[in-house]
Design the sequence.
DNA sequence: TGCTAAATCTCGAAC
DNA sequence: GTTCGAGGTTTAGCA
């Protein structure tokens, strides 16, 4: 006799070595509730869409999330061997003694069919997760990256000075472009707003007065806040996208290169 | 009283609402055996390496494979929020009442630390999976792709004919390059071997005799079988990599473009 | 909606 | 080992 799935404190439902028949309803309920489902068992996969693929029998972990995304994981490899992104239409059916789970989407039109010939266990649960994910790179790290390779902002851009003291404060990056024009860069780790633009404007004015030449002002940030583009254009300043991630990557590269050059030295 | 983890027929070990203390040994054993581990629980994540990231408390699924890869999955999204590729060094420790799982690798130097404050369940199992994964595109589809856009093989390559009847059989693709030289292409869906090369040689010779001009012979395949490069060079023929996937992608693009052009038509 | 560029891209092959 | 290119790339930012 089989026991019914038991609801845990966390709302976890577990089926160990379940029968195919009972699994159909179990999965349909889980999909309807948009719960997360983990299936471990022996399955085949067929994918058809942008390309076609087939994968014979083997024991795998299948992860089906409430958003309709599907992943089939083999025992090794970071990436799923087969998958389907979110917003799939999921359907479960019994095919003889096997269980078929189809994940279909249009645009692009593609289907992943996972057919289980045996099941080791199935878990279904609703996960609570409201946390915010944040990738960090400091403004100082971004400045270091720009100083070490100004071309990440603009081709041919060269460094004159950084953290340069001028009347209202410090210029993050001070350089010269391919046409020989001075460039003042205001760096922001987060989307740049009016404050950053006005700050830059002051620096540009000061440098313009000091040198008596026309000076370019560039806001370098991951993006502009809404409305900032308008102010920027009004003041004759520019925006250049600079992603914190790219800066971090470049710094990492420089770091490893330094180390390798050190070891290569005689 | 807690019951001991029970070994299933499949070698599955399950812990439901386990205590942190018992989990440490459980995970260390699993990692040593290089079994696959699934953990569901409330955790925080900190990543540091190429970039830095932090993720606050939330219920997630963590998948740790025998190859040392780690994935932290939130309730939605196809991709893991945090991850670490294969060949990581895994370590488990108790930090107060929390469980910390660190995945570290060098080159690039980066660490993912996942700290569980509570556990819903843990599963550990060895998966048997020896199946081969294959992506399908027929040779005919590859030929269609090449015919519809010869530049995927070589810049400026133009089509003269395909499936062209010559003495020993059919030339897959017959064209002309930017220098006006005739090009005979032999297509293979799988790594090309001696047979494909000799076939191509016959076509090239026939076309050369017919036209009285020098003719280029190109093997287009995902790769060359070992030793084939040598024969190719000896016979004065060329190899151009052509992936079935890229052909499939191109065909799909053409298809969608056709459809959109159809709908756009007046 | 479609494109273009970046990704903690990953992964594999060639050099 | 390192570099280079492809991917069912995915994803985010913009026009």
Sequence:
């Amino acid at each position: 006799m089989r026991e019914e799935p038991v609801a845990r404190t966390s709302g976890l439902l577990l089926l160990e070595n379940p029968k195919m028949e009972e699994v159909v309803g179990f999965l349909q309920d889980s999909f309807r509730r948009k719960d997360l489902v983990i299936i471990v068992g022996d399955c085949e996969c067929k994918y058809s869409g942008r390309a076609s693929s087939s994968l014979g029998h083997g024991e795998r972990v299948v992860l089906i999330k409430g958003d309709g995304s599907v992943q089939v994981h083999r025992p090794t490899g970071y990436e799923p061997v087969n998958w389907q992104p979110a917003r799939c239409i999921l359907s479960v059916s019994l095919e003889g003694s096997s269980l078929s789970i189809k994940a279909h989407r249009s645009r692009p039109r593609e289907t992943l069919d996972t057919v289980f010939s045996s099941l080791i266990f199935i878990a279904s649960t609703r996960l609570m997760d409201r946390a915010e994910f944040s990738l960090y790179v400091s403004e100082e790290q971004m400045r270091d990256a720009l100083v070490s390779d100004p071309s990440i902002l603009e081709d041919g851009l060269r460094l004159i000075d950084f953290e340069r003291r001028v009347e209202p404060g410090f210029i993050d990056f001070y350089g010269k472009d391919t046409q020989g024009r001075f460039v003042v860069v205001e760096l922001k780790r987060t989307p740049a707003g009016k404050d950053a633009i006005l700050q830059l404007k002051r620096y540009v004015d000061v440098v313009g007065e000091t040198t008596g030449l026309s000076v370019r002002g560039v806001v370098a940030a991951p993006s502009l806040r809404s409305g900032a583009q308008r102010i920027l254009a009004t003041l004759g300043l520019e925006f250049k996208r600079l992603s914190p991630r790219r800066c971090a990557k470049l710094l990492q590269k420089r770091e490893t290169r330094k180390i390798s050059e050190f070891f290569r030295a005689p």
Q: What stands out?
A: Chain B has five helices and 14 strands. The first helix of chain B runs from residue 20 to 33.
